[in-house]
Recover the amino acids of this structure.
């Protein structure tokens, strides 16, 4: 399907979105709609889902490198936030391109998950490198990015495996109705909120307070959801 115009692609995508259940408010209101625009543009110019995944990796990688190597300034923070938000939106776009064009594949899905896993490690590793290089955190507090990295990777792995194993054990899962309260509660664990937080990089003390708060909230959310997923699979 290569004769799509941007408008036709956008219209088609608007009527074929994933369920909003279990999705944070940021992903629901910002990331998916932004990804939909990028997906329509990609389909209109003939880009496949794997190419969009590659663009997502490039944008995220540029943000990570800038964070790790740049100064602790407002300009750096805004640029890093913009690149990470862009990479996240393109991450949403690749799946939408696959559904729209019928060019999805197991290899593409695998590539998408590999890039996502690398993103989780790279972002927090960059925070650690920058904090140590610029002496933004004293001694033991350098463990904060490491702890956040650990939680983020375990959370991502748990979610990915739950979706895989649930599909194998129960092919008739009843979809939940979208909950606005749940969508708000999930905000601190949304990668998009973390990406936006880097706009505070010009005031390191403020940034690390926000970063630490997101870490605590993400840990609580991850723990609660992992317990729920274990019980679901154990039934």
């Amino acid at each position: 399907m290569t004769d799509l115009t941007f408008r036709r692609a956008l219209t088609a995508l608007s009527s074929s979105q994933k369920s909003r259940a279990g999705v944070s408010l940021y992903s629901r209101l910002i990331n998916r709609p932004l990804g939909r625009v990028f997906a329509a543009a990609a389909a209109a110019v003939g880009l496949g889902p794997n190419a969009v995944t590659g663009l997502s990796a490039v944008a995220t990688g540029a943000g990570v490198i800038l964070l790790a190597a740049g100064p602790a300034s407002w300009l750096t923070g805004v640029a890093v936030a913009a690149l990470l938000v862009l990479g996240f939106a393109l991450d949403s776009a690749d799946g939408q391109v696959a559904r729209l064009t019928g060019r999805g594949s197991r290899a593409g899905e695998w590539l998408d998950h590999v890039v996502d896993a690398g993103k989780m490690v790279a972002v927090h590793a960059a925070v650690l490198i920058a904090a140590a290089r610029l002496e933004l955190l004293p001694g033991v507090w350098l463990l904060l990015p490491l702890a956040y990295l650990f939680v983020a990777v375990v959370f991502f792995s748990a979610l990915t495996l739950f979706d895989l194993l649930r599909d194998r054990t129960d092919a008739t899962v009843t979809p939940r109705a979208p909950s606005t309260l749940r969508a708000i509660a999930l905000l601190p664990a949304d990668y998009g909120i973390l990406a936006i937080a880097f706009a505070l990089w010009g005031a390191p003390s403020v940034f690390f307070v926000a970063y630490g708060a997101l870490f605590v909230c993400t840990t609580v959310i991850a723990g609660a959801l992992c317990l729920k997923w274990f019980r679901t699979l154990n039934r």
Q: What stands out?
A: Residues 204-234 form the longest helix (31 residues).
